[in-house]
Amino acid sequence: MWEIIRTSLPQLLAAGFKYTIPLALISFFFGLIIALVTALIRLSYQRGPFILLKWFAQFYVWLFRSTPLLVQLFIVFFGLPYLRIKGIFPHGIKLEPFTAGIVTFSLNTGAYASETIRAAISSVAKGQWEAGAAIGMTRLQILWRIIIPQALQVALPPLSNSFISLVKDTSLAASITIMEMFEVSQQIAAANYQPLLMYTLVALIYAVFTTVLTIIQHYLEKRLGSQIRIS
Questions:
Q1: DSSP states of the chain as a string?
Q2: SS (H, E, C) 140-203
Q3: Burial status of residue 176 (CB atoms within 10 A of its CB: 0-12, 13-18, 19 or more)
Q4: Residues in domain ABC transmembrane type-1 (predicted)?
Q5: What are the φ and ψ backbone dihedral angles of 89, each rounded to 5 degrees?
Q6: Per the CB 3.0–4.6 Å rule, which of 27, 56, 172, 218 could disulfide with 105?
Q7: CA-CA distance, 122 to 43, in Å (whole number)?
Q8: Which residues contact 51 (CB under 8 A, 6 or more apart)?
Q9: Which of 168, 67, 62 is nearest to 115 (CA)?
């Protein structure tokens, strides 16, 4: 058993640092951008043609929150190649596994995180907007200098939890042949006929990763809280 662990652990860790962590980080980065834009669109008071954009943002959030992540991965990787549009995508949309994973995880994260950001911005008292306007600040200046810093303190814990969940959800990327940790553990288990040992080992590695991220989360929460109290 210890010999299997000794030979398998480096392969699992290599897959974790080469694919699992980068996949989670890149997806979460783009997901936050999508989430912020979506939240601001849904919070906007613009009317007219802009209402169609708000409806689209609402539909996007509903769609990705209402369907399983695994199904979304299959649609993006296996389904889009069959989406043939003459003059635009005559041969369908074919993505590399890693790219398909980033696209899917980013869109999924964006849908969930947009609700977190929207709620955090809405939690800031309206008086903050009025105070900023009273000293001549534009809405954009008020948003970035006053509202976002306060909303960040509210949004940080759930967003951190979303990132930790995303790290674990990357194991689903094995279904589209991305060589992340779980996929590697499956291949090793198929070779040494020790599925219980291999899956337990990869579970422990995920536990270590999430524990480290949880410690970082608590540190950031304390640091951000102290900075806001000082300011």
A1: -HHHHHHHHHHHHHHIIIIIHHHHHHHHHHHHHHHHHHHHHHH----TTHHHHHHHHHHHHHHHHHS-HHHHHHIIIIIGGG--BTTTBTT-----HHHHHHHHHHHHHHHHHHHHHHHHHHHS-HHHHHHHHHTT--HHHHIIIIIHHHHHHHHHHHHHHHHHHHHHHGGGGGGGT---HHHHHHHHHHHHS-HHHHHHHHHHHHHHHHHHHHHHHHHHHHHHHHHHHH-
A2: HHHHHHHHHHHHHHHHHHHHHHHHHHHHHHHHHHHHHCCCCHHHHHHHHHHHHCCHHHHHHHHH
A3: buried
A4: 17-217
A5: -125, 70
A6: 27
A7: 8
A8: none
A9: 62
Percent of the chain with pLDDT over 90: 64
Which pTM does this prediction carry?
0.90
Token pair for residue 147?
A: 């509202």
Tens digits of per-residue pLDDT, 128-150?
888 888 888 888 888 888 888 88
Listed as ranges, residues in the chain with pLDDT below 50 are 230-231
As given in the structure block, the two tokens for residue 203 are 């579970």
